[in-house]
Design goal:
With 377 residues, the chain is an alpha/beta fold. The protein is 39% helix and 15% strand.
Length: 377
Amino acid sequence: MTKDPGPCWNRAARGGPSAPPAEGGLGVLAVYISGHGFGHATRVCEVLRAVRRLAPSLPFTLVGDVPEDVLLQDLPGPVTVRRVACDVGLAQRDALVIDERETAARCLEFERGWDARVASEAAFLRGAGARLVLGDIPPLAFAAARRAGIRSLALGNFSWDWIYRHYAPRHPSLARSADRAAAAYAGADLLLELPFAGDLTAFPARERVGFVARRPRVPRGEARRRLGLGEGPVVLVSFGGVGLPGLGPGLLGENAGLRLVLPEELGAARLRALGLAYQDVVGASDVVVTKPGYGIVTDAIAAGTRLVYTDRGDFPEYPVMVREMPRYLACLHVPGEELRAGRLSDPVRRVLEIEPPAPPDLGGAERAAARVAEALD
């Protein structure tokens, strides 16, 4: 449900002094980014590019345990990166297998120093002259902003209280992690809600902004030429930063007639040399083979590329994605055992026969940026 944020924009009225502005009166936009996969980083940076068009000189400080080449790609203007773990997310054995026990253990360790972490981040925000916190979507960001007396906006389609509560019956300590996350989220001024949303009721005010998605910047034919892909069906195998061990050229070599593009072909240095970004590779492909997560799915939607997806374990976001994806792109499920065996020819050829739906509105980054700019006034 969408709610009007109303008077909660006045953060100073909710406790704590306002942080001083940075030199020159601009202040700083402090952006906290979950280290769980790359999707959080890529979508928040898409919003920041739209913010930069509205505020060319506004300094950004990006906080999170995310590689700098992911954060800084095509992000102009004054930007600094502060590498610090600001959440746990989920521990994973590979791209498809969640380690629930290890997740619970890491959460316990992270939360033992919770009060000190909140105090430290609040001190950082005050010292940096932060005017606004934007978080996707570490609970620490909102607890620290509230302690520092600074407004905060959230961006996301799921929240960690929802995720951890799902696992709590098997790992009871995660119920406390969920409660702590929900209490932190309750301090956010507004959640900018994205499609494929889970339970976001921990946030007191929410506003749907639509899809934040990366569009290809190089035309499909030109991107294929630079990548040397030829004319046949091109299949991009994409499993994010965690990867899927064992799924390599030897196993996939049986898929005659398909040009498979594997992660090892897409190093950051090579893409820079070719003048391409990852979304250009998605746009150059006919099909992406992946697990369904917000980042890669919206890349495919924005590029008009078909999707073959597999299971990703007991992750609460998965059934939401599977239910809603067919509204926005041509997609087909392949069982995990078939994928791990490298048998892709049949599902790829079948998904190529599916007529894609009409493209959706992709203006979420601009709408979110307008809200950020409003909160900075």
